[in-house]
Amino acid sequence: MRILMLISSPAITDPRLYNEARALIEGGHQVSIIAWDRFKQNPIRDSLEGIEIIRLRTALPPQCGLGVPPWHAFHLLQWQQQCYREALALNNKNHFDAIHCHFLDTMPVGIRLKRQLGLPLIYDARDMYGYMMQASFPRWIARAFEWLERRLVMKADRVIVVNDVMAGCFADMIKKPITVVMNCRPLQSRQYQGRLTTDKYTLLYIGTLHKSRDLPLLMNAVRDLFNVHCIIGGIGQSDYVEHIKKECGKIPNIAFIGAVPADMVLPLTVKADVIVSMFDPRNPNGKLATPNKLFEAMACGRPIICIRDTYCAEITEREMIGLAVEYSEEAFKKAIIRLRDDPQLREGLGRNALNAAITKYNWQIEQKKLLELYRGIHRSGINNT
To answer: Looking at the domain that runs over 2-184+363-379, which CATH code has it been given?
Structure first.
């Protein structure tokens, strides 16, 4: 099958996109990605391990100091129109067999292409969009996004979600098949690797830089701790990223590394001692999420510190792969110190993490489910003309 993936990011820092596209390529499919290079920082055309990437740019990058909306909405609509036209042009050259939408903001394009080309539409849901919006907008706006999500998801022929909890939520919206493909990572080794250096005890956070991930809590907990080094990286809204970068610069034992390419995340993870997850449990999306960091820690045999009252914490405690703590600076600091001062505990949790990855939580298992989904689409011959 020839598959078109749509994503509203530059497609260089998204490990799920990369892993899924690569798995489909290895399964004998062809994959093209149309992405959004909103800040004009990446090649317009690119190729990565056989994956064709086309990056579109809106007329003006949304870098004004007015925040995201309504400027972001204007540029998103512009990109969606460009994306639709580019997809039709690509299809005219070599017909696609399926459309795979990452994130809800690509679904309007996917639905238009489904209607125009009669192709099956797969929605790859990373979050409950309405829940996610509660971290940034008033409740009434978040409820509007919930309504929009329900309307758009009903147009999908298949839905992919990241965990069983989300599968239950989407089952209330759509009666089409739902497949759970977790954000697991490829195993780095089946043998546990201890500390790779004799440097300071290192904490690592690579992920979304947003106020729903309480990075100031982490930064304040780490501040001035003896023999503790913290690395923070990721992407997010430009003004918030600049704020985090500036604050990190004031703390000697924190290094801000900015955006991290998807293929560099695991090498950095295995060099760290402990991985941290900073989901705010007060946000419904944070409660049900299974963050990338959880699976990156497992794949590399590293313990994780996460916040209680989240699904991430439930897995962490069940598999005994890290420490789940109360949502407070003091609790987080105590967990950091405890793992710093107890290398045996750190190793035990790390070994448990690696074992969990080997037996249950690895990409080799998840990619089989993805490939089976596409085999099912091919066998059923879904056609919407």
So the answer is: 3.40.50.2000
Nearest to 206 by CA among 167, 235, 247: 235
Q: Where in the chain is the domain with CATH 3.40.50.2000?
A: 2-184+363-379, 201-359
- Collapsing DSSP to helix, strand or coil, 62 comes out as coil
Q: What is the pTM of this model?
A: 0.86
DSSP state of 264: G
Q: Which fold has domain 201-359?
A: Rossmann fold (3.40.50)
Q: How far apart are CA 199 and CA 204, in angstroms?
A: 14
> Tens-digit pLDDT profile for the chain (385 aa)?
999 999 998 887 788 999 999 999 999 999 999 999 987 888 999 988 899 999 999 865 544 433 445 556 788 899 999 999 999 999 999 999 999 999 999 999 999 999 999 999 999 998 877 777 766 677 777 788 888 889 999 999 999 999 999 999 899 888 889 999 999 998 888 999 887 666 789 999 999 888 878 899 999 999 989 999 999 999 888 888 999 999 999 999 999 999 998 889 999 999 999 999 988 888 887 888 898 999 999 999 999 999 999 999 999 999 999 999 999 999 999 999 999 999 999 999 999 999 999 999 999 999 999 999 999 998 876 665 4
What is the three-class DSSP state of 67?
coil
